[in-house]
Amino acid sequence: MKCREGWLDNVRRVVSPNVNERPEGEVSAVVLHSISLPPGQFGGDYIERLFTNQLDPQAHPYFTSIAGLEVSAHVLVRRDGECVQFAPFEARAWHAGRSHWHDGHTLRRELNDFAVGVELEGDEVTPYTAAQYRSLAAVLHALFDAYPAINPARITSHARVAPLRKTDPGPAFDWAYLRHCMCQCTDS
Ligand SMILES: [Zn+2]
Predict the structure, then answer these.
(1) What is the dotted CATH code of the domain comprising 3-184?
(2) Are 31 and 120 in contact (CB under 8 A)?
(3) Which of 54, 59, 85, 97 is in the most buried spot, having the most CB atoms within 10 Å?
(4) Could you report the per-residue pLDDT of 92-149, keeping only the tens digit for each?
(5) Catalytic site positions
């Protein structure tokens, strides 16, 4: 997998309007998330609808609470490993919300300003699929190649950058297995 001009090659694009400019143009970290819509259910196009402001609040009782949210991520990795990209990496997607991170000696806020947001389709407690780890590893390698400021130490999670509000991608996410897949990934 390669990244060209902010987009992953051969990845389906669903353009989200929920983006703006990165204030410094910096692309230097990755925030991992999880999402499932409705919660605990996989498949369907509800996540894509949410990120494009096309979620029908009547389609499920839960959706009335989120239908007005304007949110996005750069990439969604679905259960079968398919990736969907919603915004070029140079754009600021809206995934981390209020957040902070110790970056060397500096406490930084607003990770959306400089981070890439990657959503895994999941519910935090169900194991993520091997296909998802393989695809995520390929996405991360493509990002390392395209954005030298991103490296393995600059991959974090929503739970870590917004600890009082968020828990995703949750205990089901196996960081050791991700590292294993990243070593296996030979960037085909
Ligand atoms: Zn999240």
Answers:
(1) 3.40.80.10
(2) no
(3) 85
(4) 999 999 999 998 889 999 999 999 999 999 999 999 999 999 999 999 999 999 999 9
(5) 119
